[in-house]
Amino acid sequence: MASIIVLLIVYLLVVFGIIAGSWKIFEKAGKPGWAAIVPIYNIIVALEIAEKPLWWIILPIIPIFVVPIEIAKRFGKGTGFAMGMIFLPFVFLPLLGFGEANYQGTLDELDHFG
Q1: What is the pLDDT of residue 107?
Q2: What is the pLDDT of residue 110?
Q3: Which segments of the protein form a coiled coil according to its record (predicted)?
Q4: Dihedral of CA 79/84/86/89: which sign?
Q5: Could you tell me the CA-to-CA distances from 107 to 29, 51, 96, 112, 114 in Å, in that order?
Q6: I need a surface site. Which of 55, 104, 105, 107 has the fewest CB within 10 A?
């Protein structure tokens, strides 16, 4: 019984880390943080942040890999960090959400500055 409770606590901590990290990422990008907890809408908002077309929502494999890469770019992070967001989201989403990285704007805005 104790091991089940420990596993449940670990699971809840992982889920909380993913939600909290996503919430902060959305806020940093100028989107409502609560969108991170709304199914389907959270994918739509992530697509907006990554500047990808809405129709991508029907292609589940593309957003899983490309959207984190594009979001990482907009926060000044590289592909390695994006891979962490994909495979270890409970570590990397809170790092991005609560860390020092700031949303750097759209690709058009990024191109104008450098």
Answers
A1: 63
A2: 55
A3: none
A4: negative
A5: 13, 8, 19, 9, 11
A6: 55
pLDDT over threshold 70, residue 114:
no
Contact 101, 77 (CB under 8 A): yes
The DSSP annotation for 47-96 comes to HHHTT--GGGGG-THHHHHHHHHHHHHHTT--HHHHHHHHH-HHHHHHHH
Tokens of residue 14, six digits: 């992982």
DSSP letter assigned to residue 38: S
Given a contact cutoff of 8 angstroms between Cβ atoms, the answer to whether 19 and 36 are in contact is: yes
Tokens of 93: 């989403």
**Measured in whole angstroms, how far is the alpha carbon of residue 57 from the centre of its chain?**
15
Average per-residue pLDDT in the chain?
90
Asked if 18 contacts 90 with a C-beta cutoff of 8 angstroms, the reply is: yes
Say whether pLDDT at 92 is over 80: yes
pTM of the model: 0.69
